[in-house]
Amino acid sequence: MKSSTGRWVSGCDFFDRERELQMLESRVRDGNHVLLTGQRRMGKTSLAQELGRRLELEGWSFLFADLEGATCPEDVIADIAEAVHPIRPIASRFAATMGRWIGENVEEISASEFRVKIRAGLSGGWQRWGKELIGSCAEHDRPVLLVVDELPIFLMRMLRDEGGSPAS
């Protein structure tokens, strides 16, 4: 086992969490939305990543969106769209719903520019695009596990901005 800080643990470094993993997996398989809360560095992300890895082996689509850098709702939707991008059927369906905007504004999308291009198209309509994106995941031909990591960091940033103090 190696010491790890700042990232989740996997493989032989992930151990002694079977009870929690089984409970989480049971809830996810039952179709529940699950919120993992706890202090930082307790292994929430590692649990979610390990569950995603295991479910992928069974044919699930595993999507992971990290919101730590998100500063507004458009960033959140762009982060989720970026997570969906490698799953072609979902990404294609989402792109089709953005049809006219993409046709007028995007000539080419590279992996490094994907988030920026999507973010630019969300201004003023992030709720609609978020609904379409989540709907595309729900209608995917395989079960989808969408993990949205660091949501509390984003929410605290939004609450500070609402209160008039600068975001950190």
List the helices and strands and how they pair.
Elements: H1 18-29, H2 44-57, E1 61-66, H3 73-84, H4 88-97, H5 99-105, H6 114-120, H7 126-138, E2 144-149, H8 151-162
Parallel strand pairs: 1-2
Helix pairs in contact: 1-2, 3-6, 3-7, 4-7
pLDDT under 50 segments (min length 5)?
1-5
What spatial order of strands do you see in the largest sheet? 1-2
Structural class: mainly alpha
For the report, how would you describe the main beta sheet?
Answer: 2 strands, parallel
Query: SSE string, helix = H, strand = E?
Result: HHEHHHHHEH
Rg of Cα set: 17 Å
Strand composition percent: 5-15%
Total strands: the figure is: 2
Q: How many distinct helices? A: 8
C-alpha end-to-end distance: 34 Å
Can you give the mean pLDDT?
78
Mass-distribution shape: globular
- As a percent range, the share of helical residues equals 40-55%
